[in-house]
Design goal:
The protein has 197 residues and is of the alpha/beta class. The protein contains six helices and seven strands. α1 packs parallel to α2, α4 packs parallel to α6 and α5 packs across α6.
């Protein structure tokens, strides 16, 4: 299993590994299926969800032998929600609106700068209503703020936390202490944590 972290400093666009491509396919399928299953009830007309990427990176990669860039997990989350909303509404008489809050966190300012450029160049033109919160700093340092914000958005918030393989030890420590305590109030309302290695 690769141990290196991707980096986007100085305009670098890293070459994506096969393990990350597989992870992105799983992520897209999971999020779309999750929304499709939880919105099956034809009586509901609104579904609220928070998607948190704790290690968002710069959001763009090069692919071996490909000219077009490969967009990372922030774009995949946004695209998956849009695709799920279209798929769900194609089978319903009463249309449903999926209200999604996005939180993209990365410890590196260079990665966040690259992510903002990636979203501006490749995502916002296709999804103009999307306004993620983009946070610089370690995931565990931003966690309390994210959870508080999610809890403000409704009495039964649903959230998916995507935590990457990088910095595994710190994530596990966060889960054992502050994360477990901070998310406990949300847990009864379907908080999901994906830690895909």
């Amino acid at each position: 299993m690769p141990k290196k972290e991707y980096g986007w400093a100085n305009g670098n666009i890293p070459l994506i590994g096969d393990h990350s491509l597989a992870k992105h396919r799983i992520l897209r399928q999971y999020v779309q299926k999750y929304v499709e299953i939880l919105t099956r009830d034809p009586r509901i007309d609104r579904f609220q969800l928070a998607l948190v990427d704790g290690f968002a990176g710069g959001g763009i990669y090069r692919r071996s032998g490909q000219k077009d860039p490969h967009l990372g997990s922030p774009a995949i989350l946004i695209e998956a929600i849009a695709a799920a909303e279209v798929a769900v509404n194609a089978t319903r008489q009463k249309q449903i609106q999926i209200r999604t809050s996005y939180y993209f966190v990365d410890k590196s300012k260079a990665n966040i700068d690259a992510l903002e450029k990636t979203l501006t160049d490749h995502v916002y033109p296709r999804f103009p209503g999307v306004t993620p919160q983009i946070l610089t700093g370690r995931f565990e340092e931003n966690l309390a703020q994210i959870v508080a914000d999610i809890k403000k958005k409704g009495k039964s918030p649903r959230a998916i936390f995507l935590l990457d393989q990088c910095c595994r030890a710190r994530c596990l420590m966060a889960f054992r202490a502050p994360l477990a305590m901070a998310i406990a109030p949300c847990a009864s309302s379907a908080t999901t944590t994906m830690a895909i290695a």
